[in-house]
Amino acid sequence: DIKALEEMKGQESITSDGRKVEIAGNIGTPDDVPGLLRNDAEGVGLYRTEFIYMNRETMPTEEEQYISYKKVLEAMGEKPIVIRTLDIGGDKKLPYLEIGEEMNPFLGYRAIRLCLQEQEIFKIQLRALLRASVHGNLKIMFPMISSLEELLEAKYILNEVKEDLKNENIEFSQDIEVGIMIEIPSAAIISDILAKHVDFFSIGTNDLIQYTCAVDRMNEKIEHLYQPFNPGVLRLIKTVIENGHKQGIWVGMCGEVAGDMRLIPLLIGMGLDEFSMSPISILHARRLIRSLSYEKCKEIANEALELGTAKEIEDFMAKISKTL
Ligand code: PEP
Ligand code: MG
């Protein structure tokens, strides 16, 4: 009901026993900011920058990008804004960037893989991001990291761009957090190692489910195998959160699962720190989280992760949610 949701505005996202989390929003363009503000987002957990590059004939310039990033940072004041570097490829193509036909585009030349090879494109975006950083609380996130080498290479390039800006006397913030999406199983499995090199993780369940279960997220014929409640996926998520916490970094989630009311109690129980979702879900999630006990959610998560099928976990959560 609308009144109960309205009452959530200005409230903390905190469980009944005091576990505080952050609920942020996912956006694609600066035009999404009013929706964030209307729904009292505590930040932006995922700004998908590929939309700046799409539906146009030429590459966006550094200046154009800078203006878009600055708009979002300024509009959100001191709130944290996670901007993800270009995640093109897979199902998203650019008319002005020929990447050739691929047998398996989702397993192909995309996101950070492309940026590490097309370094000019990557560097222009990083320059725009760094310049925009003086206008707010920017965090930079790399998508589709599958190995430590890729992460170190991306960080190396970021540092090169910082050096360039310093030499040109262009200002940028000195304390920008750098994080990665955990959306590929190989990264989730070595998340203990990756955690030593970043300030945060954000779990991308849309791709993590796809790659863990080997189920094309666009293929309707196998839709029933694309399971947010899959026990293998949930165990991986728990591992990632634990590994992040062991290294003292925060762990968020920006895939669809983060805004799924059926799964939020599990994620709270696993210790997730930040939830980023479609802005319209934010107040619903806050209301739910404020009704939960962290201690109880921990017990539920442990119990759920002993179950063998997605169906069992889903049914268990449906049943338990009535008692929460
Ligand atoms: C994800 O994979 O969960 C994610 C948030 O990224 P995208 O949906 O843009 O691939
Ligand atoms: Mg993804």
Automatic annotation (TrEMBL):
It is found in: Cytoplasm. The keyword Metal-binding applies. Residues 5-292 form the PEP-utilising enzyme C-terminal domain. Keywords: Coiled coil, Cytoplasm, Kinase, Magnesium, Metal-binding, Phosphotransferase system, Sugar transport, Transferase, Transport. Its main location: cytoplasm. It catalyses: L-histidyl-[protein] + phosphoenolpyruvate = N(pros)-phospho-L-histidyl-[protein] + pyruvate. Its EC number is 2.7.3.9. One of its GO terms (molecular function) is phosphoenolpyruvate-protein phosphotransferase activity. Its cofactor is Mg(2+). Belongs to the PEP-utilizing enzyme family. General (non sugar-specific) component of the phosphoenolpyruvate-dependent sugar phosphotransferase system (sugar PTS). This major carbohydrate active-transport system catalyzes the phosphorylation of incoming sugar substrates concomitantly with their translocation across the cell membrane. Enzyme I transfers the phosphoryl group from phosphoenolpyruvate (PEP) to the phosphoryl carrier protein (HPr). This is Phosphoenolpyruvate-protein phosphotransferase. It comes from Acetoanaerobium pronyense. The lineage of its organism: Bacteria, Bacillati, Bacillota, Clostridia, Peptostreptococcales.
